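Suppose a colleague, Dr. K., hands you the sequence of a protein chain of 367 amino acids and asks what its three-dimensional shape might be. Before reaching for any lab equipment, you can write down a predicted structure in token form. Begin with the sequence itself:
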Amino acid sequence: MSAITRLFDPLNLGALALGNRLAVAPMTRVSATQSGDATARMAQYYASFAEGGFGLVITEGIYTDERWSQGYFHQPGLANTAQREAWRPVVERVHAAGARIIAQLMHAGALSQGNRFVSDTRGPSAKRPVGQQMGFYRGVGDYPLPQAMTQAEIDEAVAGFAAAALRAREAGFDGVEIHGANGYLLDQFLSEGVNLRTDAYGGSVANRLRITVEAVKAVRATVGDDFIVGLRSSQGKVNDFTHKWHGQEEAADIYTLLGQLPLDYLHTTEFEAWQPAFEQGPSLAALAKRHGGLPVLANGSLHDPERAGAMLASGEADMVTLGRGALTHADWPQRVRNADALAAFDRQILSPLADLENADRLKASAR
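The predicted structure, expressed as tokens, is then:
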């Protein structure tokens, strides 16, 4: 029997019953209002994935507070009551189409390139991020030099995750995913060379994970035990694609610590999810599964159905999340079920801006 059939097996993720093992990965679309409110067009966008057969939709990264968390202009937030209310129609549309939806909570930290609340940035240390700001998210030039966070600012960031999680629950979301990946704030603290601190948040793996531990525990204490809480992790970053941890031993240390937290799942992302996380050996998803002991969602170039199914059949992951595949075909699950043709991803969807208006213009010009 083809491994593809595994994609359509039901899955219980914590207390959440899912109809299949296909999820939409979080993808920044910078299409909210200037004040960070989700729009009717965003509701249509997210609902299209549910209508296309995905069992779960994970939103783009949502900023958590009105200080230093916002990463991009026109990024949606869950930092105030108005933003919470703006998400309700999105959640309702996805639920009406038969899927579940999880809000990804994100603090950009030193990678912020557009924040309407403040003009400066914060990170674990006063070290300028490598790379250049992303043009398709309205960024230009070098990243700003951040200021090192004080203890009060760390506490404020942690409280922001908890408050945003509560708003997500009030808006009707089925859970939240804490963004600990891709070079954003929590990942900055984890990353040697970026985190130069000598206090309780620097040095050892346990210390560098301290802010993540605090954020997860604060979120769980706020939303209760019956609400889904996940965490995304990665090695590579949006500004440093080739970053690696110190081999399987450090990965084991990281996932062992994360597995002790009150989480319902881990979400790993690599460029190609099935490849060895290091020069040889298991994939990052497999390492998370082995050492974390939690359900694992795997992301990374899994738009080939056989390859996606193989991740499940091998036991490396419990669910797969699609980015480029979902952007190409919002009805990817239905197409795979029907053995319909799948087109290659068109990068023009994200050029010159990765917003929904650009995608709409591309579709209109193709008619």
